[in-house]
């Protein structure tokens, strides 16, 4: 995606969320390698501990969604974004501390490299395809999103 397209999409998403009273944002990052999707497992004592999810995290004040995608992916996996290639949509959910958060997910192309997990957040990772999706514990909304990704030929 071109940077100006990402900026336009972000303006639209932020405006819509503001109208709906949502002020907290999270990004999810879909990384594919050899036709398989990267998922990471949250440490046991964290929110959704032991569950697999897409890498990602909270958008910081003054940060664009694209900047957050790059930062969170690097912090959580050690992988560097080459380009954001697609916007997948958004979902709303609640956390322990926030009644409503909107998560936006993006597909990225990454530089070559090995996954190096941030030890305090994730303790395992897997490259999965449609056959492996049901073997891993996931929250229902995550499973639905990940299922759509691995059954869609990318």
From TrEMBL:
Residues 22-150 form the Nudix hydrolase domain. Keywords: Hydrolase. It comes from the Bacteria. One of its GO terms (molecular function) is hydrolase activity. Belongs to the Nudix hydrolase family. This is 8-oxo-dGTP diphosphatase.
């Amino acid at each position: 995606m071109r940077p100006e397209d990402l900026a336009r999409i972000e303006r639209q998403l932020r405006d819509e969320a503001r109208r709906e009273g949502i002020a907290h944002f999270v990004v999810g990052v879909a990384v594919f390698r050899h036709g398989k999707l990267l998922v990471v497992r949250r440490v046991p004592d964290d929110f959704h501990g032991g569950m697999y999810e897409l890498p990602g995290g909270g958008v910081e004040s003054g940060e664009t969604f694209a900047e957050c995608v790059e930062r969170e992916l690097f912090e959580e996996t050690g992988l560097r974004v080459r380009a954001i290639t697609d916007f997948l949509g958004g979902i709303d959910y609640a956390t322990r501390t926030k009644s409503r958060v909107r998560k936006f997910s993006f597909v990225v192309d990454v530089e070559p490299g090995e996954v190096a997990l941030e030890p305090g957040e994730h303790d395992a990772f897997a490259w999965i395809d449609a056959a492996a999706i049901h073997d891993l514990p996931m929250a229902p909304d995550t499973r639905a999103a990940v299922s759509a990704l691995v059954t869609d030929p990318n």
